[in-house]
Amino acid sequence: MTEMHYLTSAVYETLRLFPPVQFDSKFALNDDVLPDGTIVRKGDRVTYHPYAMGRMESIWGPDRLEFRPERWLNDDGLFVPRSPYEYPVFQGGSRVCLGKEMAIVEMKTVILAVIRRFNVRVADPGHEPRFSPGLTATVSGGLRMVVEEVVKR
Which domains does the chain have, with CATH numbers? Predict the structure, then answer.
């Protein structure tokens, strides 16, 4: 499972564009200054938005809206993670998700199990999925799929 660099990249790219938690907040335990110079006082609430950050040209470049797993691969085809502060899907620093690695393995396991047995495609390729505002990811109106079992010969 650790050698599947392109699959890992596809999972990260999917989560970049469609993070399971669209926005999150933290409260400052002490006075602090953010990297851009913003002063944060003890008790202040700081909210960040992984959904918006995953679409920022200053972080991801002019092709930021394209699904492009290759952006996570180096010249040798090996997966290279980005800073958790640019890609906060699993948070960062002392608050990084303890289940991150297990979640990635679980996603890859499910993906492999599905693509081995089924052909899966979007029912309406012209339909653009739209997130609905909320703490956790919800696609407005769902995303209709066609799932066909692969015929073994």
Answer: 5-149 (1.10.630.10)
